[in-house]
Write a structure and sequence with these properties.
heterodimer, A: two-stranded antiparallel sheet, B: six-stranded mixed sheet, 48% helix, cell membrane (chain A), transmembrane (chain A), MetI-like (chain A), cell inner membrane (chain A), ABC transporter permease (chain A)
């Protein structure tokens, strides 16, 4: 019994080291002034640097806003496409189902640079480059595999048994969808929303190429600094990035669990 | 049932209709014309927004554009939008626009040089006519006979580029580790490495500085003329630089990690240097050691030096794509960046102490004095010392060949 507990503790510890250590380093980088090998701790810590940078940097605020705008748009478009697709894949048998199953993963299999270059070409052809819809649809392409997979795994648990029952009892299709399908599928939906939000926030090349310079998001600003080795500035962006990702995720989480409890 | 199928079919076709509807919008507007004189450019550009696309990883240069150039342009009634984008991606974008037959685009001014200029010129992505009458500051500060104003790493410029940045490779050594006796030639470098194994390395080409270091070793071992005259084929370059590759292989076992791996980025190498794991790093900015010291990244023993036989110097440039919607405003932006007022500000440490792209004979005395004063203050090299120790770049066509040969014969030898 005791050994099992120790094992469990070890696993937790390993997890903490693997996940929290890098986070901690990023945090320290954002507030440290000089930090050289082999000293374990920064010699000079400046707590104000982070906030000064955040408040005085108008660029950062503008990029924050465009990041969020695109992420929300992407989540909406992704769910609009992914939900029906996942329902079709999990509930029905039809010709070409296997093919569709593979097609869903294509954006992840083909190197993104090839996808994006060609997408940019198409967007230019149709005059969509630089538009909100254009960038959001580029982001959506990379969110769809995650969203569909997460929704599908959840929907396949019950298949459409409860929906059929609900329809049998006289509920309309819309009622069934909102009162039966979504509550049963809330975990999958939550996962899909979160994943799309994160993937959209981290898109770099797609935003730049298809955005035509109209959407200078946080990742677009952060990327050059990390490659140049401006770790401190990159860390400030990184922390802000985490905050704006984690806070909405937490809110979604609270909202979904709260809703679930009310229904139960 | 049939009605349902029709609806499904319509639902599938809907996106195509939407896209079809949009297609009418594109291709109708044509890219603007390049104005013929600065005066008309100024008039045309009023009230416009001009975009500046370029590398966004240099916070000093970003700050200079935002704090100095943008307000100067505002006085002229023109807004500036800076978009951080790597030149490879910019070229991808421009190529896509060209293939899609789009005549007008959002990219007005790009920061470019060398191999990328060669590519852009081959694909005819850039517009010409960036001459003295359109850019008066070019007439004032850049002499027509300046080789760097005539060709960019062996590629004829033909008025497609205007000098923007002036860079020269410098070595930064740790005073403590070298004991004040810096290896100012490849021979000294090799013998120091043999005595102190594992304390030197260089960034793996095709990194910008790593590649420049390898070229510098080529100049040291076979001389500029040998590589310059060699035909731009793999066999030709190999024959010319064989002794240099042999030198690098002789050095290899005495490098950090016995030369089995190399730092991937100059950022990584700078960090190793700051931590005194290695004794030497490189930079394209003569004040880099000073600014890094001021930032607390490098310790006080970081000292700048160059090879006795000289180090590679090159220029970066500004260009205007053919598709630019705003060629008048682009010309005004280029002229403003080249102005004495903007370049004088650029000398400040917070803007990277960048050397102006002016021709040697035309640099205003105040700028030379300022730079030399800073050099003395920070114990780095003066303008005169630097320009005496400057060797030209090889042709842009040979650079990727050299990088390939390095990979084949040095990195993957044995």
């Amino acid at each position: 019994m005791a050994s099992k507990k120790i094992l469990k503790l070890l696993v937790y510890l390993l997890f903490a080291v693997l996940v929290l250590m890098p986070l901690f380093v990023i945090f320290m980088l954002a507030i440290s002034k000089t930090w050289n090998y082999p000293s374990l701790w920064p010699k000079w810590v400046d707590w104000g640097y982070y906030f000064r940078f955040l408040i005085t940097n108008a660029e950062m605020q503008a990029s924050l806003l465009s990041s969020m705008e695109l992420a929300v748009g992407t989540v909406v478009l992704t769910i609009l496409i992914a939900y029906p697709t996942a329902m079709a894949l999990s509930y029905y048998d039809f010709k070409g189902k296997k093919l569709l199953n593979i097609l869903v993963y294509l954006p992840m299999i083909i190197p993104s640079i090839a996808v994006l270059t060609n997408m940019d070409f198409i967007m230019i052809k149709y005059g969509l480059n630089g538009s909100f819809f254009g960038v959001v649809s580029a982001h959506t392409l990379f969110c769809l595999p995650y969203a569909i997979k997460l929704l599908y795994d959840n929907l396949i648990l019950w298949k459409d048994k409860y929906e059929v029952t609900s329809r049998n009892l006289g509920a309309t299709p819309l009622q069934t969808f909102f009162k039966v399908t979504i509550p049963l599928n809330k975990n999958g939906l939550q996962g899909a929303v979160m994943m799309s939000y994160i993937v959209s926030m981290t898109q770099y090349l797609g935003t730049l190429l298809i955005g035509d310079g109209n959407y200078i998001t946080l990742s677009v600003r952060m990327f050059p600094f990390t490659t140049e080795g401006k770790y401190r500035i990159a860390a400030v962006y990184g922390i802000t990035f985490m905050l704006v990702t984690l806070i909405p995720l937490y809110l979604i989480d609270v909202w979904v669990t709260h809703k679930g409890r009310k229904l139960a | 049932m049939r009605g349902k199928k029709l609806i499904v079919l319509l639902a599938f076709l809907l996106p195509l209709f939407v896209l079809g509807g949009c297609s009418n919008k594109s291709n109708d507007s044509k890219g603007s014309e390049m104005p013929t004189s600065y005066k008309t450019a100024l008039k045309e550009a009023k009230g416009k927004t001009v975009t500046f696309y370029g590398y966004g990883g240099s916070d000093t240069q970003n700050r200079w554009v935002d704090d100095v150039v943008t307000p100067m342009m505002k006085e002229k009634g023109i807004k500036v939008k800076r978009v951080p984008m790597n030149i490879e991606d910019i070229l991808k974008k421009l190529t896509n626009e060209k293939e899609a037959n789009k005549k007008s685009g959002n990219i007005d001014v790009v920061w470019i040089n060398g191999e990328n200029f060669l590519t852009a010129k081959k694909l005819s992505l850039l517009s010409g006519n960036l001459d003295n009458s359109l850019i008066p500051n070019m007439k004032t500060y850049i002499s027509g006979s300046d080789p760097d104003a005539k060709s960019d790493m062996g590629t004829k410029i033909n008025n497609m580029e205007v000098p923007f940045g002036n860079a020269q490779l410098v070595m930064i050594g740790s005073k403590q580790m070298f004991n004040g006796d810096y290896p100012t030639s490849s021979d000294k470098l090799l013998s120091w490495a043999k005595e102190n194994p594992g304390k030197l390395t260089y960034v793996a080409p095709p990194d910008f500085t790593g590649s420049a270091f390898v070229r510098n070793i080529i100049y040291e071992t076979v001389g500029f003329d040998a590589i310059n005259k060699a035909p731009a084929t793999k066999a030709g370059v190999y024959k010319a630089i064989k002794p240099s590759l042999d030198y690098l292989n002789e050095l290899k076992p005495y490098l950090w990690q016995e030369g089995k791996t190399y730092p991937k980025t100059s950022a990584q190498m700078d960090k190793m240097f700051a931590d005194h794991q290695i004794a030497m790093t490189f930079s394209y900015n003569q004040m880099y050691a000073a600014t890094q010291r001021a930032d607390g990244k490098f310790t006080d023993d970081a000292h700048t030096f160059v090879f006795d036989k000289g180090t590679v110097g090159n220029y970066s440039y500004l260009a205007v794509p053919k598709t630019s919607d705003n060629k008048a405003a682009a010309a005004v932006l280029i002229n403003t960046m080249l102005s004495k007022k903007a370049e004088t500000q650029r000398l400040k440490a917070k803007y990277g102490s960048a050397i102006p792209p002016y021709s040697g004979s035309k640099v205003p005395a105040s700028i030379t004095n300022d730079l030399n004063g800073q050099a003395k203050e920070n114990n780095t090299l003066t303008m005169d010392e630097l320009s005496k120790k400057r060797v030209p770049e090889v042709s842009a066509k040979k650079i990727p060949i050299i990088e390939d040969l390095w990979k084949e014969h040095v990195l993957n030898a044995d």
